[in-house]
Amino acid sequence: MPVARHLLVASLSLFAAAAGAAQTHYAWVGTYNPNGEGLYRFTVDAKTGALRDKTLVSSLPNVAQLTVSRDGKTLYAASEVEKGVVQAWRIEKKRRADRAQPGRLRRRRAGVSLPDAGR
């Protein structure tokens, strides 16, 4: 689990940097089925690093890789399913600055092909 913790910290750091001077920061967390339900958004306490306000924003199964665009306006989520899926989400600030809600942009199949030698 130490590796997962370091990856989460690195992801939070990258997202905080992308957020610029904004006072409210968010962490996007993907989970695997059957115990996880999909993609979650948390509010990050800037002073303590604590995660709060867990909100399920998508039931996309087996969310494995997440990244936020440099401008902080788009979230990309890869789903490890048989045919592979990548979804892009527009991160919209609704009425209150502390409620970033993703709106789905696109969903596309994703995959990697290897030559017969497997290299």
TrEMBL record:
Region forming the signal peptide = 1-21
Asked whether the keyword Signal is assigned, the reply is yes
Write out the ranges of the annotated region (Disordered).
96-119
Q: Which UniProt keywords apply?
A: Carbohydrate metabolism, Glucose metabolism, Signal
Any one Gene Ontology MF annotation carried by this entry is: 6-phosphogluconolactonase activity
Got a GO cellular component term for this one?
cytosol
Q: Mention one GO biological process in which this protein takes part, according to its record.
A: glucose metabolic process
> Out of the domains of life, which is the source?
Bacteria
UniProt xrefs under InterPro entries: Cycloisomerase_2, Lactonase_7-beta_prop, Quino_amine_DH_bsu, WD40/YVTN_repeat-like_dom_sf
Q: Which PANTHER family does this chain map to? A: 6-PHOSPHOGLUCONOLACTONASE (PTHR30344:SF1), 6-PHOSPHOGLUCONOLACTONASE-RELATED (PTHR30344)
Q: What protein family is recorded?
A: Belongs to the cycloisomerase 2 family.
List the protein's name: 6-phosphogluconolactonase
Source species, please?
Answer: Klebsiella pneumoniae
